Amino acid sequence: MNLLVPHDGSASSGKTLDKALELAQKMGGGKIYSVVVVPDLCISFVGQDECNLLDDTLRKEGQGIKKAVEARLAEKGVQGEVFVKAGSPDTVILETADQVNADYIVMGASGKHGAEIRGALGGVTCKVVNLGRRSVIVVK
User: How is residue 70 annotated by DSSP?
Assistant: First the structure.
């Protein structure tokens, strides 16, 4: 069984990864794929130097998250692979799910910039649930 777990470095993503690890172990194995999305936050009135600095900072943060997720997978003895990709989070998550042939996408109800309203889904989670073809397990 292949599980895709998007991770943005938030506490919610850490909790979601733990739940996915628990699921994989209960299923007697499986592989966990994780994707860290580096969003393009450059806007037209920001100079190229600022864009490059922002992009570099976000990529370094993404690599740090990747290392933390890889360490957690190794600690639990679960096979996995972690990707760092640039783009729109919902699009990258759905494309990666297709790429790894995920049986399920396991993601938090909200992430780093998610909804604070109890019971509300964050924007990225909502898009993945509504636009994707794969089943999504939402972790609260």
Answer: H
CA 41 to chain centre: 17
- Distance from C-alpha of 116 to C-alpha of 97, rounded to nearest angstrom: 27
Q: Are the C-beta atoms of residues 32 and 5 closer than 8 Å to each other?
A: yes
Residue range 65-98, pLDDT digits in tens: 999 999 999 999 999 999 999 999 999 999 999 9
| Length of the chain (residues) | 140
**pTM for this predicted structure:** 0.90
**Residue 50 CB: number of other CB atoms within 10 A?**
12
Question: In a 3-state reduction of DSSP, which class is residue 104?
Answer: strand
Domains of the chain: which residue ranges?
2-139
| Burial state string for 12-38 with b = 16 or more CB within 10 A and e = fewer than 16 | bbbebbebbbebbeeeeebbbbbbbbb
Rounded to an integer, what distance in angstroms lies between the CA atom of residue 20 and that of residue 59?
A: 24
Task: Identify whether the C-beta of residue 36 lies closer than 8 Å to the C-beta of residue 85.
Answer: yes
The CATH fold assigned to 2-139 is Rossmann fold (3.40.50)
